Amino acid sequence: EFRRFSLERSKPGKFEEFYGLLQHVHKIPNVDVLVGYTDIHGDLLPINNDDNYHKAVSTANPLLRIFIQRKEDADYSAFGTDTMTRKKNVLSNVLRPDNHKKKPHIVISMPQDFRPVSSIIDVDILPETHRRVRLYKYGTDKPLGFYIRDGSSVRVTPHGLEKVPGIFISRLVPGGLAQSTGLLAVNDEVLEVNGIEVSGKSLDQVTDMMIANSRNLIITVRPANQRNNVVRNSRTSGSSGQSTESSLPSSTPNILANFLQGEEESDEEDIIIEDSGEPQQIPKAAPTSESLESLTQIELHESTQNGFLPSSEMNLNHSAGSISMEYEVQDQDHKSLEEDGTIITL
Amino acid sequence: MRRFLRPGHDPVRERLKRDLFQFNKTVEHGFPHQPSALGYSPFLHLMAIGTRSGAIKLYGAPGVEFMGLHEENNTVMQIHFIPDQCQLVTLLDDNSLHLWSLKQHSGASELREEHRFTLKGPPGSPPSATQITAVLPHSSREVLYLGTESGNIFVVELPSFRLLEDRTITSEAVLQRVPEDYCNRRSCELVEALREHPKNPDQILIGYSRGLIVVWDLQNNKVTHHFLGSQQLENLYWQRDGSKFISCHYDGSYTQWPLSSDNRQPEPLENTMPYGPFPCKAISKIYWQTTKNGLPYIIFQGGMPRASYGDRHSISVVHGSQQTAFDFTSRVIDFFIIFSSEPAAEFDDPSAMVVLAEEELVVIDLKTAGWPAVHPPYLASLHCSAITCSHHVSNIPLKLWERIISAGSKQNIHYSSMPWPIDGGTNIAPDPPQRDLLLTGHEDGTVRFWDASGVCLHLLYKLSTVRVFLTDADPNDNMNTLGEDEWPPLRKVGTFDPYSDDPRLGIQKIYLCKYSGYLTVAGTAGQVLVMELNDEDAEHVVDHAEADLLQDQEGYRWKGHEKLKTRDGPVRFEAGFQPFVLVQCQPPAVVTSLALHSEWKLVAFGTSHGFGLFDHQQKRLVFVKCTLHPSDQLALEGPLSRVKSLKKSLRQSFRRIRRSRVSSRKRRGGSGNTSEVQEANAKFDQEALQEMELAPVQRKIEARSAEDSFTGFVRTLYFADTFLRDSSRHCPSLWAGTNGGTVYAFSLRVPPAERRMDEPVRAEQAKEIQLMHRAPVVGILVLDGRSTPLPEPLEVAHDLSKSPDMQGSHQLLVVSEEQFKVFTLPKVSSKLKLKLTALEGCRVRKVTVANFGSCKTDDYSENDLAVLTNLGDIQIISLPFLKLQIRYPCIRKEDVSGIASCVFTKYGQGFYLISPSEFERFSLSTKWLVEPRCVVDMPEVTSNNHVHNKSGMENAAR
Q1: Residue-wise pLDDT tens digits, B613-644
Q2: Of B203, B230, B257, the domain-final residue
Q3: Are the C-beta atoms of B380 and B427 separated by less than 8 Å?
Q4: CATH code assigned at B194
């Protein structure tokens, strides 16, 4: 059934109020529903918090198409890229694992706040046998959920085949971030952690490196199963531009070229409590230091992108920017993403 | 990684770095781990100690030391100096012989291995044919006589180690003239002892294990005398004039034999069993020393009644009616007597006995009545009680230094005043640049103060905290309670006592203020003692306070050890550091951090539950802060104490092994003892290994969370006078860092001096910083306006430091195990950081600010961070820009206890334990280098008189 009603664009209000309004309009006061809308690309995107609600309202042109599904029989996978237009998209075909349809679909619980949990990155610069996986630990309560072990792999060297020691994934914890992404598997060999090669490092060293990077962990692996590798396509060279298209995190990972370098400093923000007041982010003491007020604004503004536009703008900004040891001049786009750190309580 | 790809290679800075930093391991302090052999040169006045790991160390006058290492890392079995030479021969347990020389090289002597040699028998002979059991360097300095298991004695030329086959003394040749019936009963078998005649170098005395002793004439290649011993032989010793010799035996007896020209087969003069008549243990070594007054000294090792005293490690000294059995705390490896070595002297006149026991060196003054022990200037047993922590204080003011020495000298009155008798060589190292103290905390509740200024780590003073508490252990437990008429006349000597009766007494943290003489120590059961230096004995009550670190938190139950009970009423303290305040943390968990501010008279302490601040002037607790996460049950139950008790039970089982040892025969028996332990060790290792194989090694990858265990564990405490609230007023502050990556800052209000006793010290929490990576905070430091670390309390008052810059803005450096971060103050904003773990996979274990001076110019010095990582690497990181300057591998990463024991000094030196009993000293600085540099001069060889090294004498007297 269809309803049509109007909202004041300048004062959309809160998502809770909007949700109540929908229930009221549809006379379904006690039914849990999923709310979605179509964006300008024709993608079906969810509305479940203030941020994406505001985003949705701001994209209305002037009409905003809202889709409401009963929660019990909702098809979560309906959300995402090209869901509405169904047009042939080379990229999405390439990226969607071949066995996607054979596998039972991984049902993720309805997230309170959609955000990416993992991605495959740097496809265009890595050998096809390697996979660089980024796990977004921040903002999720899920454990990373994997174990590593010592092992050995066979390498081709100038002296012929040689057995060399290596680090391997030994176990995935059911329900953990690593398992739920489907991008890491037992017996995958770990080659790099956040851009640092692990060869020559001990298991304990690699463990410490991974834990130190745990809030923004980028692991380059040689998958034990080499059949699901990304097939290089001539088009993918400009892949960084592609990631503006939103994707469903669980099944269609983003491609973020050169993300690694730009993100090096992004993994943490410390918190300060002054005189037993409210916890606050510790700002950067950069030459262009921001007042707290402006930070707050930026946070609100930027977080409209949470979950759905995880990447490309800041990525582009950042890969160009240099990070010197003395003064980390970080652009605010970048920073805003981690402002979610405020939700982490002391 | 990029930071290392482009670290702006500034050639000026690179050159400066070369002038500032340099890594050297300079000297090993303490007592060698697992000593296995002892040698002494009466000619050079040098002592040599060999170890089971193949090290050989030479010691002479204080400061004169040399070290060598056999490539094979095999146990050193025997050490023999070549008479009248700067050379020595070592025998390893792989039957190889090694010749070492002391040679001068650019002004200083060095110990070098010259030759090696393995005795080879004819093809097809059993290995025992050439297994060396006795070595005799002949006084001609040209040959070595090598007694073997087969009974043959081989002769090799020196220094080439060429075997002189025609001079071999075969057992057949020896047996030719021995009576038939004796021959039949006993064949020669193993050569137990070889001794050259003291007057006639052509005669050597050969002792075989079955009891046969012969005098062999080297000129005529024949036996001149037979001595038909009936007991299994252990050792032989010539009387000084060569008219008699003495043999000691397996049954605990010794026998004197005459040597006369008319009787070729003499009967024994006297056969004595000193601790008979019941079966006794073997006497494995014996000395017969003549004196002017006629009464000889008979000194022998072992011989105790087997049943009742068989487990004692004893050496008995008999002189007329005086007899003492020195009872050592560990197995006696070997001993020697220092006596008049001038050939012209008529008598031996022994002056000292030097005993190498497994865990310590004991020297007994034989000239002074009562035979007191001599205080060794080196080879201190650091591990008398296990070391639990250490603290280094550089550049001690002379006044404090003298007061500590004076307090220590009152403790050492029972030592002999004899100058150190082993005084060979000359120390030519420059005088140490400053007076440095190394304080070690021990498991038995003592703190030992070591002079760490130079090459000889020397005990100055020992402080015990035990008196403050009521413990089960009777302080007089270890004293010798035997009465006058006790037999055998045992006397305990030595200080090694590794078994703590109450592990709660263990010292965990030490802080000494060198300007005020205030000392605070904290221990395993949450006890914090504040002490003051008093030059007199005193009796007073120790003020007692309790700090409930859980505050209002309810429903917790501490399952660890109880707190220590305190003594009521006044306690008598000897001169030295005397406690006047005791704070006990509740729950009584181990104190994990400690800080003292002697100017503000405040002491801060932290445990796994929280931290507190105590005003030791008003003797009042200022505040406590609980850092415990409500869900952290582990920290509450006190699993640390569980770990402790496991350690304890392990130690007890070792104690049992030790006790159950049946000390049997000297050489073989000796190795039998150790093999027993080795076997037990091997078995244990194997079991541990199997356990490991069952569970494949894997590591969990998980982000840290606030709910992890031990996040509240307080790792570091720091006092600073800085800008905490606003940039116009600075104030005293206390900073605390936890295991969970939290930093707390409290602003303090300390009343001015004139109202110090009237107004309370107030504290208020001003800041709390949560590091997002949640790694343990191991160091906090405030840099002043010039980016210089704030000076220590009272440092400015004593004109030893520039006043800090209070005009410019201060910065806060927080060092976690994973990162270094600099924040601005008073408004906390992050300025820069250096990630260590994320990039290199190593973690910070120790961090200190060190001052590095340039070796080129006197007027340049800078402050840097010296960092030790869990991989055993040392990194130097610049301040305030946090740039890695240089990195040195220092400790093996498997050596966890070595890494944990490391302590840095303020001037770029450091110490770490290489064994329970030895500190390795290292230096990161080009300017401050403490290493042995010494000369051993060859005294005149031609005149056979012993020429004493004059300078060596002077050195010893210093």
Answers
A1: 999 999 999 999 998 877 666 655 654 444 44
A2: B230
A3: no
A4: 2.40.10.480
CA distance B78 to B98: 11
User: What residue type is assigned to position B538 of the chain?
Assistant: A
Separation CA A279–CA B202 (nearest Å): 92
Any A CB within 8 A of B696 CB:
yes
Full domain range(s) for residue B73: 42-118
pLDDT digit string, tens, across residues A206-263: 999 998 888 888 999 998 877 766 665 544 444 333 333 333 333 333 333 333 333 4
What ipTM goes with this model? Answer: 0.78
| pLDDT band for position B955 (cuts 50, 70, 90) | very low
Domain boundaries, chain A: 1-83+106-114, 118-228
Cis ω before B587 (30° cut-off from 0) = yes
Regarding the domain delimited by A118-228, which CATH topology (the fold level of the hierarchy) does it fall under?
Pdz3 Domain (2.30.42)
Q: What is the pLDDT of residues B397-410, one digit of tens each?
A: 999 999 999 999 99
In Å, how far is A17's CA from the nearest CA of chain B? 34
CATH of domain A1-83+106-114: 3.10.20.90
- Which residues are registered as beta bridge partners of B523? B507
Task: Please give the Cα distance from B386 to B448 (Å, whole number).
Answer: 12
Query: Is B135 found in the same domain as B114?
Result: no
**Alpha carbon of B83 to those of A213, B132, B245, B651: distances in Å?**
65, 20, 21, 43
Q: Which two tokens stand for residue B164?
A: 């002189």
Q: Is residue B159 part of a domain?
A: yes
Across residues B200-205, what is the average pLDDT? Answer: 92
Residue where a domain terminates, one of B59, B83, B118:
B118
Structure tokens at B348: 């031996």
Residue B633 belongs to some domain of the structure: no
Residue B100 maps to which CATH number?
2.40.10
> Under an 8 A CB cutoff, do B824 and A285 touch?
yes
B99 and B158 part of one domain: no
> Which residues have CB under 8 Å from A167's CB, separation 6+?
A148, A149, A150, A151, A189, A190, A198, A201, A203, A206
Q: What is the DSSP letter of B419?
A: P
pTM reported for the whole predicted model: 0.79
**Alpha-carbon span B384 to B493, nearest angstrom:** 13
Residues B184 and B113 in one domain: no
For residue B542, give the DSSP letter: P
Please tell me the distance from the alpha carbon of residue B470 to that of residue A286, in angstroms, as a whole number: 58
Which of A148, A181, A196, A274 has the most B C-beta neighbours within 10 Å, making it the best mutation to test the interface with B? A274
Whether A215 and chain B come into contact, CB under 8 Å, resolves to yes
Among partner residues B703, B832, B883, which is closest to A211 by beta-carbon distance?
B703
Assess whether B901 and B866 both reside in one domain.
yes
Does B810 reach chain A within 8 Å, measured CB to CB? no
Q: What H or E segment, with its residue span, contains residue B909?
A: strand B909-915
> How many domains does chain B divide into?
3
In chain A, the N- to C-terminal Cα span, in Å, equals 46
Same domain, B114 and B134: no
Least CB–CB distance from A211: residue in B696, B704, B821: B704
Q: Has residue B309 been placed in a domain?
A: no
Minimum CA–CA partner of B831 in chain A:
A285
B940-953: per-residue pLDDT in tens?
544 444 444 433 33
Q: Do B61 and B145 fall into the same domain?
A: no
- For residue B443, what pLDDT is reported? 92
- Residue in A131, A215, A141, A172 with CA at minimum distance from that of residue B700: A172
Buried b (16+ CB within 10 A) or exposed e, B721-749: bbbbbeeeebbbbbbbbbbbbbbbbbbbe
For residue B15, the surrounding DSSP H or E stretch is helix B11-20
Answer whether residue B928 is part of any domain. yes
Does position A91 have pLDDT exceeding 60, yes or no? no
Q: What chain B residue is nearest to A178 in terms of C-alpha separation? A: B701
Give the pLDDT confidence score for residue A140 in this predicted structure. Answer: 66
